[in-house]
Specification:
Elements (H helix, E strand, L loop, with lengths): L3 E6 L3 H7 L2 H5 L3 E7 L3 H10 L7 E2 L2 H6 L6 E4 L7 H9 L3 E4 L7 H14 L3 E3 L7 H11 L6 E9 L2 H10 L11 H4 L2 H11 L3 E9 L30 H5 L19 H10 L16 E8 L4 E7 L6 E8 L2 E6 L4 E6 L8 E6 L10 H13 L9 H20 L3 E2 H10 L1
Parallel strand pairs: 1-2, 1-4, 2-3, 4-5, 5-6, 7-10
Antiparallel strand pairs: 7-11, 8-9, 8-15, 9-10, 11-12, 12-13, 13-14
Helix pairs in contact: 5-6, 6-14, 7-10, 10-14
Bound molecules: nicotinamide-adenine-dinucleotide (NAD).
The site of nicotinamide-adenine-dinucleotide has 25 residues, from α1.
């Protein structure tokens, strides 16, 4: 078969630096035929590196979709609020689609895209990259093999990491709900998806609590200016002091986040801190997304889940404990470790097996390249898409329902919740 051709819509951090590099090892089976990106530096860099023909270079997605169809698939990697409209256009034009999460920050748009995809029989793979990691695949296999019997209850913690939270959710793209998504959708739609996927069950009801506790002016150190670079009196001890976080010379995330300028020198990066969002004091910002949230869930198969997302952790780690009828499974994604204990004949006589998973080298422990592998195989017609839009919409609904519960203080029944929005 000829190589499959893909168009990249939005050549930013995710599209250009996390998914596209798949081509470097798999150029014999796929290539990029087009790019749409308004930022000239990113567009030109991508077009040159990925050898895009002149007629395949567009300044905006709108121009790409107005031109004749030249690719088999599209990767939509724009910001949260620009996924839905481009996905709808791609569905109508018959593209197979890799779509960055979230589908949309608007629940009605998520449901509408599912309806449209069903009408056009379109393949849409939402980037639930965790499912493609060896870590989660190993856990799924163990659960399916009944390594701990029947799962009864799960404790799942999303330890965001204090510096990661400050980077993405106080200073970065996802710091305001209105401009992007609520935290439980932006960060935790992965967790909602993983839970439902691992259990092979839909969520029945959800209750949630949480707020923005710390990153506000009430906690600003005395005399702290609006920017770290304006002579902050606590620069030596504040864990969020921007020059300490961003001026190291390494060119990796988040130090090299594109808005600070990939490949630029220290002087230019300092200027970006003096003028741009990443130099702002974390206590004097307009952020409004929560810094801690918990959710209690009941799944249709009777499994209960206690979920916690919290900014205040040292590691960025997802940790899970699965409690089963015949044993327990404890897992840490950051440590790539899964510990399975089968209950023994007496008190604490169980046997423990420790599995260390070798993660993939690419982003999200190999999940970013794993999903590319499946997308290309689906484009080539060699594999079924295992990542259906209806499952993705369900895990998004879990996040929206948790947010409604957090705001109203009431338990949300997923079926009623979905029905209410489907009727609107
Ligand atoms: N799957 C994951 O694990 C994961 C992780 C991080 C972020 N994300 C999601 O990925 C998405 C992209 O995030 P990012 O960090 O790459 O953002 P980014 O801002 O670096 O990239 C988005 C790009 O879209 C471009 N763009 C804007 N308008 C456009 C238009 N009309 N046509 C074409 N391109 C346009 C921007 O110029 C930018 O380069 C977000 O929705 C985010 O929530 C997913």
């Amino acid at each position: 078969m000829e190589k499959v051709k893909i168009a990249l819509i939005g050549a930013g951090e995710r599209g250009q630096f996390n998914y596209a590099p798949y081509w470097k090892l798999h150029g014999h089976e796929m290539c990029f035929g087009a790019v749409a990106e308004p930022d000239r530096e990113r567009r030109e860099r991508f077009a040159e590196e990925y050898k895009i023909p002149q007629e395949g270079i567009f300044e905006r997605a709108e121009d790409f979709f107005a031109a004749p169809k030249v690719c088999h698939g599209v990767m939509i990697c724009t910001q949260d609020t620009r996924h839905f409209e481009f996905a709808c256009r791609a569905v109508r034009q018959g593209y197979k689609i890799l779509l960055e999460k979230p589908i949309s920050p608007d629940i009605r748009e998520c449901l509408e895209l599912q309806r449209l995809a069903e009408e056009y029989k379109a393949e849409i793979m939402v980037c639930h990259v965790m499912r493609y990691t060896k870590f989660y695949r190993t856990i799924k296999k163990l659960l399916e093999e009944k390594a701990i019997g029947e799962v009864v209850s799960i404790v799942h913690t999303e330890n965001v990491g204090y510096w990661h939270y400050a980077h993405s959710y106080v200073r970065g793209n996802w710091h305001r709900r209105e401009d992007s998504s609520p935290m439980i959708l932006a960060k935790c739609c992965h967790d909602m998806d993983i839970l439902s996927w691992l259990l092979g069950s839909r969520c029945r009801s959800i209750s949630s609590w949480g707020d923005l506790r710390y990153f506000n002016s009430a906690h600003a150190p005395a005399g702290s200016p609006k920017r770290c670079t304006d002579g902050c009196p606590v620069s030596g001890e504040c864990p969020y002091y921007a020059p300490a976080l961003y001026l190291d010379d390494e060119e990796k995330w988040p130090t090299a986040i594109t808005s600070l300028g990939v490949g630029r020198g220290r002087a230019e990066r300092l200027k970006a801190l003096e003028e741009g969002p990443y130099g702002k004091c974390v206590f004097h910002n307009d952020n409004d997304v929560v810094d801690h949230q918990v959710a209690a869930m009941l799944f249709e198969n009777g499994v209960t889940v206690a979920f916690t997302m919290c900014a205040f952790s040292n590691d960025c780690d997802r940790t899970m404990t699965f409690m089963g009828t015949e044993g327990e499974l404890r897992a840490s994604m950051d440590r790539n470790q899964i510990q399975v204990t089968r209950f023994g004949a007496g008190i604490k006589t169980g046997n423990t097996q420790v599995i260390t998973v070798v993660p993939g080298s690419a982003g999200h422990s190999g999940g970013d390249q794993g999903i590319m592998e499946e997308f290309v195989a689906v484009l080539k017609g060699e594999r079924e898409n295992t990542n259906s839009i209806s499952q993705s919409v369900h895990s998004h609904l879990m996040a929206f329902a948790a947010e409604e519960s957090r705001i109203t203080g009431k338990t949300v029944l997923l079926e009623e919740f979905e029905e209410r929005y489907r009727r609107q």
